[in-house]
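Ticket #4471: complex job returned nothing on first submit. Input attached below:
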Amino acid sequence: MTELATVPVRLVSRATSAATPHSSSLTADSSVASRPTALPTLCSNCHLKDLCLPCGLEEPDLERLDELRFGRRRVKAGEALYHAGERFQFVYAVRAGTFKSSLNLIDGREQVSGFHMAGELMGLDGVANGHHASGCSALEDAEVCAIPYAHLNDLARSSNEMQLVMSRLMSREIVREHSLMMLLGSMNAEERLAGFLLNLSQRLKARGYSPLEFHLRMSRAEIGSYLGMKLETVSRTFSAFQHQGLLEVDKRHIRILDLDGLTRIFQPQSH
Amino acid sequence: MTELATVPVRLVSRATSAATPHSSSLTADSSVASRPTALPTLCSNCHLKDLCLPCGLEEPDLERLDELRFGRRRVKAGEALYHAGERFQFVYAVRAGTFKSSLNLIDGREQVSGFHMAGELMGLDGVANGHHASGCSALEDAEVCAIPYAHLNDLARSSNEMQLVMSRLMSREIVREHSLMMLLGSMNAEERLAGFLLNLSQRLKARGYSPLEFHLRMSRAEIGSYLGMKLETVSRTFSAFQHQGLLEVDKRHIRILDLDGLTRIFQPQSH
DNA sequence: CGTGGCCTTGAAGAATCTCAAATAATGTGG
DNA sequence: CCACATTATTTGAGATTCTTCAAGGCCACG
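Support reply: We reran it on our side without changes. The output follows.
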């Protein structure tokens, strides 16, 4: 049914990928004591470190994380990072771009189970039985750190902090899905879309972007799949929000005009 | 909003709780070498060991699990095991009875996020931030092992196997929620109820009960909440299945007449 | 034996989906 | 650089599914 491990895994080396090849001279003195400006893939140097895997880790552990030297991988818009059913080897951290994970029904229907942005981890559903339960693909040109799960496990074994961080990350995933279930199970179209937008807004804000004006990386169909409604309903609900003066919508460009209003829709007070 | 840690935690000591207080004499010789018939709470002796936490663990680890001497706790039908928001201290394993976990919306709506039966673990959503994201209560008189999470963590730290088991359990929870999301996001009433019944059937079978004839422990309203539909719709769908010759329904007593038929409804072939 | 909780069923209404068409945006090949 | 094919989005109208409201039955329990 599902394609198994047929994806060419193109692991990019540690050199900065934006820079020219000879920029690797940057990393020449990487054996120096504290490796100040060493490899751009080092967690301790990463601009995402407070959002990503190393969040909360202190020096001893952080350094050991750095020693793992995660490979990086670029994924073009529309390409898969991994497929459902594929063997689970890596956990991926988004460096740039946006991803969606999705499950496939037998009849071809697709159910989007999440959108992922910078600093977020993907692939933890593979821990259960060694194979990815869902697939993951890029919504725009993107880049990830490929973190070998086995190495991560070794680290967790030897460090209490690291173990804690890993457990929390998995549990957070459970909680995240909880709230999506609640949304899917007991909310109407407006509540769902409001919840979706508020969630996006928060995450963008946490990454230093404007929480009130942003560009959607996913199509109406993908939003619909995620929220359990048809793309036409998504579109109509966007229009409704616009007419209510809550949003300005121009295709995928969104400007939130009334954050409180959206919040009220998402969390209907009283009864 | 939510009640915080106001629940009287009644941890039953290791004595069998059905017995009278002085039955604690049962545990008097618990310091004996191999403790053959010692405490009924020992994982290595438990009839649920292949379904529950110790599943897959070998001797060295199993013994260390035994040494933790989990407390047990009885919960009467309708009583809460823990509430949403309460401080997270224990992971619970179902010994007997059935539980539901649920989230509460601000406006009082309840969303059931899972049903749990013998051998299943509950409470792992609390790992994320130290507080339970959802509450859990008994659908019938029930009993659980209360496993102090801190102890479990200690164990995982020192044993690779144990760490693996813990990670898998959490990931399994993620995968479980994935499939519920798919169900909520892209299936109609009949597909949802069929999926629910097939899932129950499987789990009962794994526990040695008949997969074709069983008693539902949850109300129509609870099923509906779990599946994202109203109780009347649940009832009507049961009736529809009965008219289609798929089931025999008598209140909460269910007999599956056509398992393949149910499966076809759940997984619509082609399109 | 009356009461309350749970379940079933009907009928009307509302929300969402389906089908269809028009428009805009984008990329392709000539 | 343009014509054309393709895709994404919006909007309308009718069909469908599910919900809401209401009534009645069954059963357990005091």
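Chain B touches chain A through 49 residues (CB under 8 Å). Closing as resolved unless it happens again.
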